[in-house]
Amino acid sequence: MKAMVLAAGFGTRLRPYTLKRPKPLFPVLDTPILLHTLTQLRRNGVEGIVVNAHHLREQVKVLLHDHEDVQVQMEDVELGTGGGLRLAQPYFAEAPFLAVNGDIVHDFDLAALYQAHCASDAEVTMLLHDCPRFNNVRVDGEGRIVGFTGPAGEGERLLAFTGVQVLNPAVLNPIPAGVFYNSIDCYAEVIKSGGRIQSLIVSGHFWTDMGTPADYLKLHEDILLKKLPGFSSGNADTPFYLGKDLVLGAGVSMQDWVSIGHGATIGEGASLTRVVVWDGARVAPGSILVDSIITEGE
Length: 298
Hints:
Layout: E1 3-6, E2 27-28, E3 31-32, H1 33-43, E4 49-53, H2 57-63, E5 70-74, H3 80-92, E6 97-101, E7 104-106, H4 110-118, E8 124-129, E9 137-139, E10 145-147, E11 157-167, H5 183-192, E12 197-201, E13 207-209, H6 213-226, E14 240-242, E15 247-248, E16 253-260, E17 265-266, E18 271-277, E19 282-283, E20 288-294
Parallel strand pairs: 1-4, 1-6, 4-5, 8-12, 14-16, 15-17, 16-18, 17-19, 18-20
Antiparallel strand pairs: 2-3, 6-11, 7-13, 8-11, 9-10, 9-11
Helix pairs in contact: 3-5
C-alpha cells in the first residue's frame, strides 16, 4: 500500500501563522503534524509515500530530506487537490493508493479502509462521518456518494468528508496536467458519467481538521487533557508539555494546559493558560497569555 499526503495548501484560515510555516509543519507537542501523519501511515502498513508541497515548500523538503520512504513532490504552481494527485499519478502505477489531507489528526484504521476499497468496484472510496459543521456530501442508502452539495434528496443523508480516501489512479486521467483542479470536481464528473464513488462511514472515533487557530488550540487541549493515543506529553501526570532545552524563568505559572517547544524561553513571572509556544519562541517577562499561539519573540 502506497499513500499520498496532501500538504501543498496555503492555510489561509491560519494566517498569520502560516506566513511563517506551512500548516503541515505546525508543531503538535513540539513535533510537526506531518511527522505524526507519516508515523501513522507507516503503522498502518504504508510503504512508499508522496508528500506534495507548494506553500513554503522548501521547509517541507528540508524536514523530509532523510526520510528515504518519502518522495517530496515540489509544485511550482498551485495545483489544488486534483492537480496535485494527478501529478503524482505515475508514482502509483495502477494500484489503488491512500490519500490523506496533511492537516488532520485522527485514529482511523487506514488498512481497513484500503481493504474495503479493494474489495469493492468503486473508483474512489471516501471515508465519511457525521460532523454537522462540515456535512455536505450526499450519500444514498447504499453508501454511494451522489453529490457534494446539499440539500439531501429522498433516501439520502448528508455527511462530512474526513480528508481520507482511497483512489484508483485511473480516475485521475481526465484531470489536465499542470493546472489547478479540485479533486471533487473530478469526482462529480465520475458520478455524472455513471461511475462509482463509494463511502465508508465511521463513528466513535477521534478526528479534527486543524483549519483555524481555535482548532489548533483545541487539538492540544484534547491531547493534553484527554490523553489521546499516539501522542505522548512526556509526563502523564500533568497537562503540560515541556520541550527540551527550554528556559523557564523564576515564577512562571501555567494553568489548564500548555505546550512549550524545545529551545523556547519563558520570561520571569509569565503566566500561560491554554497556550502553545513554538520551538525557539520567546515569551517576555511578566506576560499574561491566554488561548494564544506564540511563534517568535513576544
